[in-house]
Amino acid sequence: MKWLYKKALKDRNSIEKVEDAFGIKFPSDYTNIVLENNAATPSPNTIDTSRQTGKAFGELLNFNLDVNENILSLYEELKNKIPNKVFPITMDPGGNFLCYDFRDDEANPKVSRWDHEQKFVVEDKELIIEDHENQSDYYHLDFIANSFTETLTNLYGEEIEESNSWNNFQNEEKLKEFSGEDLVQVNRIRALQGLPPIEK
């Protein structure tokens, strides 16, 4: 597995600052990855949940707290939509998050995926969003793994190369071989470089 597009961590103490803000202690397998691969994207990048297959892992949230979009600012945007003691750690291009879930065991949090689309049921060919007392109950939070290491072990899909092999991302015919979440990731990387998306 490779980590691509990492952003150097400016202040190693930012991890402790985030832990203090959240009132938790992140597992060391996660913090060790963040120290070396802050805000990076793993390759391969596809993960399965207890409810869905072929979803994107996305990229690690940024611990550089002086940038506009960082782990604390994203939590502020998300906190009313997720249960207490659940904290985002990655974000995919569609606005979904992998989260640490500390509710059952604060020493060994599970990894779950928060889906930005609200839950619904279909009755008489109509989509119905049922009323809930808590805003977080409108959204799916699906189990992925018992640890961050297990999550990484379960990643699969096409290998993506970093910009030192950028020519691969300009070969549009070759890129059309990608599909699903892998294609979403490719198009996100192309967008960062100002290139148009690949359409099949």
Structure, explained:
There is one protein chain. With 200 residues, this protein is an alpha+beta fold. The chain is 27% helix and 22% strand. Strands 5-6-7-8-11 form a 5-stranded antiparallel β-sheet. Strands 1-2 form a two-stranded antiparallel sheet. Strand 7 and strand 8 form a beta hairpin. The longest helix is centred in the C-terminal third of the chain and has 13 residues, at 180-192. The mean pLDDT is 86.
Q: Main attributes?
A:
single chain, 200 residues, alpha+beta, two-stranded antiparallel ribbon, 27% helix, globular
Strand order of the largest sheet: 5-6-7-8-11
Poorly predicted sequence stretches spanning 5 or more consecutive residues = none
Radius of gyration equals 18 Å
Task: Please state the average pLDDT score.
Answer: 86
Distance between the termini: 27 Å
Q: Report strand %.
A: 15-25%
The number of strands is 11
Coarse morphology = globular
Largest beta sheet, briefly? Answer: 5 strands, antiparallel
Order of helices and strands: EHHEEEEHEEEEEEHHHH
Q: Please identify the structural class as seen in this structure.
A: alpha+beta
Helix content: 25-40%
| Total of helices | 7
In brief, what are we looking at here?
By secondary structure, this protein is of the alpha+beta class. It has helices spanning 14-22, 28-37, 71-78, 148-153, 167-170, 172-175, 180-192; strands spanning 2-4, 41-43, 46-47, 55-56, 59-60, 86-91, 97-101, 110-118, 121-123, 126-128, 139-145.
Topology diagram in text:
Layout: E1 2-4, H1 14-22, H2 28-37, E2 41-43, E3 46-47, E4 55-56, E5 59-60, H3 71-78, E6 86-91, E7 97-101, E8 110-118, E9 121-123, E10 126-128, E11 139-145, H4 148-153, H5 167-170, H6 172-175, H7 180-192
